[in-house]
Design brief:
By secondary structure, this protein is α/β, with parallel strands linked by helices. It is built from 19 helices and 14 strands.
Length: 527
């Protein structure tokens, strides 16, 4: 994957000023590690009359498959061979755009400490991309770049020179000539290369709207192909595309009126909406878990039944947690968690702190030993009562972290949910929901059997009549414990029920799943 940027110079302004703008010395080659390979920057020519900077991105197809589990060429789980044999190492795409923003970040922002007068000076530039996938052909390439002042040469690449009757491929050889500033040129490429490729290699989330608007500042709002650009850049996610277009329209109106965006977007008076909104229960729950882990001094944490990764994400934001491991039996949940965490674009140092792997929580697993703490957040109520003893042994008997944090709904609080019919549990997959005395009895028994102490804490508003919506148990392992003989995961399920909860009337015949599924994230966030 290759791209060159060339400029010409004069005696007053030598072409080698390009090195100052790019923050890369023309006299040496440099290499930069990326999440999917290595980016090389070098100068094939560097004279006062002409200077060319080249960016060569070596893509590791195996790393791309391992870290990129989302949609896009080479990422589809039903196209195993295409994951390894594809055009990603050769054709310019979102991978090259990400490399541009990483390697030339200061240049893209228009910053140059050594020569602060240079970034604002228009330059005679030539940009060459030998292989660019263009879904829409050369006509779309011209429609995207010509309104920005570029002279565009987009020559279709034939499928095979030996067989001209086969016609052209969807690739073009792109040459752009123009006189923008270097920062403008880089921002044009950062946005429009993925638009032409039309297949991003990473999960597109809400923050992509901010990236698009930052890179498109000053040109995207008035671009005649704005709809195509926003739709393709945001992977045709309508909610994100609509948000981007609304903000671009505000920017266009503000520019036309010579005003600030805040002056245009003033239909709502901030002073009229001063009522404090309640904190969502899911947010309170995660905050309570983080507080409990801090109190225990935990650094390496297991999130057992991590679901879609909300808690893992919250823990990674706190530098005190040096390692965070998410475990779930659901491959689909782990895939969503990977996208939420953006593991495919995460920096190496941050990526070294997090792991996700599949596992069943009702079976012992050597990978779970040796950690400071384990969290079971909204998990135990998904386990059939006869299987609770197996979960208990796997966590408290086999893994034996120094600290265990367990949260579960308080069924007494259900009467406060106006939208929840009487006698119903909060989620259709809940096998039971405990009263406060039932949860305390279970927690005390588990602590006694395995050599732990336990402290119960409320999560959410603590109602004087029915208690909090969520109850939290903080288990701490006692020094040199002598655990009592407790249930074994190999015992017959009929003996395990003595330690399980009274199940809800709606679940008199529980379904034995044999594992602990991930937490019910959608309901959790809605709560």
């Amino acid at each position: 994957m290759f791209l060159t940027i060339s400029t010409t110079g004069t005696p007053e302004r030598p072409a080698t000023d390009l090195g100052f703008l790019l923050h890369k010395h023309p006299g040496r080659a440099q290499a930069f590690s990326t999440s999917h390979g290595t980016a090389h920057v070098f100068y094939p020519e560097a004279t006062p009359e002409r200077c060319t900077a080249a960016l060569l991105l070596e893509v590791d197809p195996v790393a791309l498959v391992r870290r990129g589990k989302g949609k896009g060429r080479g990422g589809a789980p039903d196209a195993t061979l295409a994951q390894y044999v594809n055009d990603r190492p050769y054709a310019a795409s979102s991978l090259l755009a990400v490399a541009l923003s990483g390697v030339f970040s200061s240049a893209m922002k228009g910053q140059c400490k050594a020569r602060p007068e240079l970034p604002g000076v228009p330059l005679p530039l030539r940009v060459e991309v030998p292989a660019l996938p263009a879904r829409g052909g050369a006509d779309l390439v011209r429609a995207l770049f010509e309104p920005l002042g570029w002279t565009v040469t987009a020559d279709p690449v034939p499928l095979d020179d030996r067989f001209p009757e086969w016609g052209a491929s969807r690739y073009v050889r792109l040459v752009l000539d123009g006189t923008p500033t270097l920062a403008e040129a880089l921002r044009h490429l950062y946005v429009l290369l993925p638009v032409l490729d039309d297949a991003k290699h990473y999960w597109v989330s809400e923050d992509e709207v901010d990236k698009l608007l930052r890179a498109g500042e000053g040109w995207l709002a008035a671009h005649p192909e704005q709809n195509v650009i926003t739709s393709r850049y945001l992977a045709r996610r309508w909610s994100l595309t609509r948000a981007a277009r609304e903000r671009l329209e505000l920017a266009r109106l503000a520019e036309a009126d010579d005003s600030e965006v805040e002056e245009i977007d003033n239909a709502v008076d901030e002073g009229t909406d001063t009522e404090e909104k309640p904190v969502p229960l899911a947010v309170s729950r995660r905050a309570a878990i983080v507080t409990a882990l801090h109190d225990a001094g935990a650094g390496r944490v297991l999130d057992l039944g991590c679901g879609q990764g909300q808690l893992v994400q919250a823990l990674l934001k706190d530098a005190r947690f040096t390692e965070v491991v998410g475990v779930d039996v659901s491959v689909r949940a782990l895939t969503i968690a990977s996208r939420r965490l953006r593991l495919d674009t995460m920096g190496e140092r941050q990526a070294a702190r997090v792991k996700l792997f599949q596992g069943s929580l009702t079976y012992t697993d050597r990978r779970l030993t040796g950690y400071d703490a384990a969290v079971l957040s909204e998990v135990i109520e998904h386990v059939d009562p006869p299987r609770l003893s197996a979960l208990e042994y796997a966590v408290f008997g086999a893994a034996r972290p120094a600290t265990v944090v367990v949260t579960t709904p308080n069924v007494e609080y259900n009467v406060r949910w106006e939208s929840l019919p009487a006698g119903h549990v909060r989620h259709g997959d809940h096998r039971f929901e405990w009263r406060r005395d039932e949860f305390r009895a279970w927690a005390d028994a588990v602590a006694a059997r395995h050599g732990y102490t336990v402290e119960l804490r409320p999560v959410g508003p603590d109602d004087p009549e029915v208690g909090p919506p969520t109850q939290l148990a903080l288990f701490r392992r006692a020094a040199d414990p002598e655990p009592e003989e407790g249930p074994s995961p190999r015992q017959d399920a009929r003996h395990d029920t003595d330690h399980g909860p009274r199940h809800h009337p709606d679940h008199d015949t529980p379904r034995d799943t044999g594992h602990a599924p991930g937490r019910d994230t959608a309901k959790e966030e809605a709560a």
